Structure formats: structure tokens, C-alpha cells
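The data are quoted verbatim here:
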Amino acid sequence: MKELSKRPGLSVRALESSILTVARSGEVRGATWNEIDFDNKIWIIPAERMKARKEHRVGAMKILNELPRIAGGNLVFLGQQGKQMSDMTLTAVLKVSALKSAFLSFDLFCVSS
């Protein structure tokens, strides 16, 4: 985690967020700014975005305060061309970070929802 936090990039911050919150890749990649309650320091993931279809509340991380807000975009982790970041982007970060083997066993990045 320490090495990861030293690396620049929005995709690296998305991976960090997934690790810190134990949220699924799709939940992190689909996070929107209106889901973040900065006053109460909480990320509220709506039921329709959760696998179990129940609202989920997660302690918001310091990382979120440091992320850029792109004009006209509501996604926290904006991908290319203003769309949601792809799951393959996070997989690439894992490969480069040499963390892949450590997290595959936990199935943190299960694509099937």
C-alpha cells in the first residue's frame, strides 16, 4: 500500500480506494460525487449499484478530498473520453504494481456482479 500511495494517477487512486473500502471494482469505478457526503465523511453507495441491492455506507477516505473534480463530470474516477473507468485499467495498475497475486485470492476485482 505504501508503494502504491507514492504513484501518481487517477487509476491508482481508484485501486487504493477499492483496497481501503473493500468495495468492488465496479462500485468504485461508478462512484459519483453526489454519493460522497464530505460533511459526514461517508460514501453512500445506492442500493441499485450494490450487488445485494442494499444501500451501503463506507467511511470516505482522505484520498477523495485530493482528487480533481472535472467540470461537467459526476464520476469520481473518470476514464477516457469522459466515461467510466474500465475494469481493465485497474487490472493494469495491479500488474504494474506487482500486487496482482496478493489480491487475486480475495477476488476483490470480480467482474461478475
